[in-house]
Design a protein that fits this description.
Number of helices: 2
Low-confidence stretches: 1-5, 20-29
Number of domains: 1
Strand order of the largest sheet: 1-2-3-4-5-6-7-8-9
Strand content: 25-35%
Largest sheet: 9 strands, mixed, barrel
């Protein structure tokens, strides 16, 4: 009987030790310093089979009527490109990308990270988005719609989870329409010390059949400094057919 009691006692002690180890490990992971993302980054597309290359971008799961319009627009774009007369885009009108399009490249961006805030500045148009850490998200009634909305983030282990709301209706990702209620959730994580992923999920039940997720990868650019890129003296304009035209010197806008 004493042997059985001693054996049971040892098993109990071992179980308690294992549980304490698991709790301690979880606490250490939770309290561990987040990775430092500070620095310059550019879009990364690795070779075939590279595990650091994210999955291919999926077509947006638009409602049926909106999907037909979106596909017709893509067909018109392809036809215009083939004719050498591309359709106008935001760049034609000197309008910045906004969120989340600025995260799709191709221009480099810089991350500046602190304990309370993360700023992401893109080279094109000197765009800057601010992610406020460990702050509650506001309601749409309390913010002004903009190109970058309001972003709040939290570190969940080594993953930065960012919630963004308040994007203007004409600031579109992949030319997909949205309502003011669109919500963007991003998950930033290092898949390698020099490769960062941004998993972007858009939710807008009035427009999308289901949440739409696209993931981009970026390569760290040691010692790269962003250069100034301002849209000024722009000579491009959209004609009556929505085609990008180049205004010649001395020629007035239509």
């Amino acid at each position: 009987m004493r042997t059985q009691t001693s054996s049971s006692h040892r098993v109990s002690l071992a179980a308690l030790a294992a549980a304490a180890f698991c709790v301690g490990t979880a606490a250490e992971a939770q309290n561990a310093a987040p990775p430092d993302l500070t620095g310059s980054w550019e879009r990364y597309r690795g070779p075939a089979g590279d595990a650091a290359t994210p999955p291919p971008e999926a077509q947006p799961p638009l409602k049926a009527d909106l999907l037909a319009e979106w596909q017709a627009r893509r067909a018109a774009e392809r036809a215009a490109d083939a004719r050498g007369v591309p359709l106008a885009t935001n760049y034609t009108h000197c309008i910045p990308d906004g969120v989340p399009s600025m995260m799709s490249g191709p221009f480099p961006f810089e991350i500046v990270q602190s304990a309370s805030q993360i700023n992401i500045a893109q080279e094109a148009y000197s765009q800057v988005r601010r992610i406020y850490l460990n702050k509650p998200q506001l309601t749409l009634a309390d913010i002004e719609l903009g190109f970058y909305g309001r972003s709040v983030g939290t570190w969940q282990g080594s993953t930065l989870v960012v919630d963004t709301i308040g994007i203007k209706d004409y600031v579109r990702f992949r030319d997909v329409p949205h309502t003011p209620n669109m919500r963007i959730t991003e998950r930033f994580r290092l898949v390698r010390p020099d490769v960062l992923w941004d998993e972007i999920t858009l939710e807008d039940p009035a427009i999308l059949e289901k949440p739409w997720t696209v993931t981009f990868a970026y390569r760290r650019m040691p010692d790269y400094e962003l250069i100034e890129y301002v849209c000024e003296d722009n000579r491009e304009y959209a004609d009556d057919e929505g085609v990008t035209r180049l205004r010649l010197q001395g020629e007035d806008a239509p």
